Predict the 3D structure of the following.
Amino acid sequence: MQSAAPRKIIHIDMDAFYASVEQRDDPSLRGKPVAVAWRGARSVVCAASYEARVFGVRSAMPAVRAERLCPQLVFVPPDFARYKAVSRQIREIFARHTALIEPLSLDEAYLDVTVTQSGLPSATATAESIRAAIRAETALTASAGVAPNKFLAKIASDWRKPDGLFVIRPRQVEAFLTPLPVGRLPGVGKVMEAKLAMLGIASVGELREHAPADLEQRFGRWGRRLHELAHGIDEHPVQPERPTLQISAEDTFEHDLRLDELEPHIRRLAEKTWAGYRRESQRVARTVVLKLKTSDFHTLTRSLTPALRPMSAHEVADIACALRERVERADDDRYRLAGVGLSGFVDRDSYQAQSDLFDTPPA
C-alpha cells in the first residue's frame, strides 16, 4: 500500500506574547525586564519578557521569587482584554492562508497548510508570509515551526526562538529526533523520564531501539505511543473546532483559609463559571468540579455528576460546597486557592434525546 502524502503543519508561537504587547504599547518598558503579574506574595508571573528571562524569571513562577531573581523587574498588571484583541488580529492573518486553524491559547496555534488559500508554493513560504504579516500589522514577532505533523511542528517552533523559523522536512525527521532527550517528546514528563532512564533510555534514538512490544508490556498503550513518537509518527489532525472540555474560574486568596471558610469564595467562583457557561450554546455540562490548592501547594480536585445536570449558578455552588466533605484533610489545613468548574460536556441534542428517553413513561 502506498502511504498518503504527509501533511504540512505550521505551529506559530508568539514571542513572550503578553510582555511583548506591554512593551509595544509602552515604549518606556522596551529593553527592560518585564513581568506581567501583580506584585505581591499571592501572585504568579503570567509572562516574562526576554530581558527578564535572562535572570531566570519564567511564567507560572511566584512573583516574590521572580523579584528576588531580578530586583529591577518591572511588574505590569495583566490586561487580558487587550491580549485577546491582538490574538484575534493574528488569527485573521492565519485565516488568509487556511481554514484549518487549531488555537491552543491566545498566543499559539497549529495550521494545516497542506492545501492553502493563498497559493504560496510551500509551507515554508506560508510560514514566512504569516510571520512577516504579524510583524507588519501588530509590531510583534512570532516564531514558527514547519513539519509533517503537529508534535514535530511544535518542537520546531521552539528551535530558533525568538523571531525564528525552523523547518523539519519528512526526510529529516528521524535524524532530527535521534539525539533529542526523551523529555522533548510530548507527554514525557519528569516521572516518565526517570522510568525510561532506569531502562537506559535517555535519548529518542535509544528509545527507538526498543521493540514496541517491550514498551507496550511495560507502559501499556502509552508504550506503543512512545514508539510512534520516537519514529516521528503523529496522525492527529489539526482540529479547527475543539469541543469544550471544561469551563472554570479560580482565585488565589490574599490569606490562606480553612476549608470551612471557603463557601463565600466558592459561591462567587460558581457565579463566574456559570456566566462563562451561558455562552456555550451547543453543549451542556453534566459534572461539577471543585479544585483546591493547599498552603504547601498540593492540588486536590473533587467532582460529582448528578442525575440531573446543574441548571443554575446556585446549584453549581451547592454541589461545589458539598464536595468539600470529600476532602480528606485535617480540619486545620489551610488553602491558598479554590476553583469551580463545569465539565463532562455533551451535545445538547444528544442530552435532550437521552432525557426524553428516560422521561417517557412505559407503554
In short: Confidence is low (pLDDT under 50) at residues 356-363.
